[in-house]
Amino acid sequence: MLLILVVAAFLLELVEISGYKSTTFQQLKQDGKFWPLAGTGRDVVKVRGLVDCGSICHSLRPACNSFNWFPGNLTCEMVNTVNAFLEDAPGAMAYVNASSVCYTSPPALENRTMYFSYGWNGSLPAPLLSEVSYDCPIFSRCPPLVPLKAKCIGPNTWQLLNVNVTPSCLANTQGYELSTEDGRMYKRYPGPMNRTEASRVCCQDGAILASDTSGITYSSIRIVAMDTTEAILQGATDEAEEGTWIYEDTSFLQVNNTPITSYNWWGTNSSLPAGQQQAPNGGRDKNCLSLLGEYWFDIPCSTELPFVCQYF
Ligand SMILES: *[C@@H]1O[C@H](CO)[C@@H](O)[C@H](O)[C@H]1NC(C)=O
Ligand SMILES: *[C@@H]1O[C@H](CO)[C@@H](O)[C@H](O)[C@H]1NC(C)=O
Ligand SMILES: *[C@@H]1O[C@H](CO)[C@@H](O)[C@H](O)[C@H]1NC(C)=O
Ligand SMILES: *[C@@H]1O[C@H](CO)[C@@H](O)[C@H](O)[C@H]1NC(C)=O
Ligand SMILES: *[C@@H]1O[C@H](CO)[C@@H](O)[C@H](O)[C@H]1NC(C)=O
Ligand SMILES: *[C@@H]1O[C@H](CO)[C@@H](O)[C@H](O)[C@H]1NC(C)=O
């Protein structure tokens, strides 16, 4: 009994259904509802209140382990949470069976940051089907395509998802050289690769594709890529919007082909006809960026070049 009281104190809002084998429901989200199993004619009823809504859900078990309550029109939608997902719905309140929640924490994984989802903010108990996704700390900029996740799939039961497809957070600094200019580490890869592939290679090291964003960065890049007659890729693209160059080093940016700082090294190509020599000159055909000598040239994103990774 004491345990039940302690547990109940954790819950934000509960619907207590008295009687034979009662079920306690926990509010998962205000202004959210479960979808898609709710909403069919059979599942929707008009009731007098929240407790009635919970009673009906309780009596339907296990077909109903959660419900959406709409106080505005006294409507109750019965849901089986399995295969349902939570969506934003103003005026709705999503409730789940509190007996099928996780009172235990999701596994804490070393060096990983947890992000909570499915209407859950991370405080226990975790509602059934709530999820935590794990990301690498700041030193790894590689966005996991399929994030490592844990999901509350039953009473105190966490299931780890995507374990085999998630890259590890371990940084690979093998072959990187420390720049005393900025304290960061750099490595030249001969490639040749296009920007997306080069970016992926850097990413897997826990690094980013380097860009010439300051005099210090330029000097650091030149520690590992000494040949100034060799064009290398930069970690920037204006693919999304012409002239807006987004850099992997998000402290730098160009708008209308103009850097946000005074650091501007767009080059001129004297091999081109007069009037077309000033870079950038490729428009939508050249959405990637190279560094040749001290100068920047826009290039097609299919261009394969050597590149430098920068480790934060
Ligand atoms: C998280 O949600 C619970 C209710 O589910 C609430 O009591 C608590 O204050 C919230 N915590 C944060 C940090 O928002
Ligand atoms: C609530 O969950 C408990 C534990 O999983 C289960 O025994 C019970 O039948 C569920 N109640 C409803 C209404 O789904
Ligand atoms: C009750 O109101 C909600 C919005 O507040 C709406 O989505 C739902 O369809 C309504 N249900 C009925 C039966 O009118
Ligand atoms: C966590 O990070 C430290 C320091 O980078 C490293 O030595 C350790 O192996 C990492 N642990 C895991 C499980 O990745
Ligand atoms: C300069 O223009 C010539 C002729 O189009 C081209 O072959 C060369 O790759 C260009 N150089 C740079 C750095 O873009
Ligand atoms: C970049 O290279 C990869 C691997 O060779 C290729 O699949 C992809 O289509 C290339 N991207 C562009 C824009 O050329």
UniProtKB/TrEMBL annotation:
Signal peptide residue numbers: 1-19
Keyword Cytoplasm: no
UniProt xrefs under InterPro entries: C-type_lectin-like (IPR001304), C-type_lectin-like/link_sf (IPR016186), C-type_lectin_CS (IPR018378), Ca-Dep_Lectins_ImmuneDev (IPR050801), CTDL_fold (IPR016187)
UniProt cross-references to Pfam families, sorted A to Z: Lectin_C (PF00059)
Name used for this protein in its record: C-type lectin domain-containing protein
Segments forming domain C-type lectin: 181-310
Record key words, sorted: Disulfide bond, Signal
Keyword Disulfide bond among UniProt keywords: yes
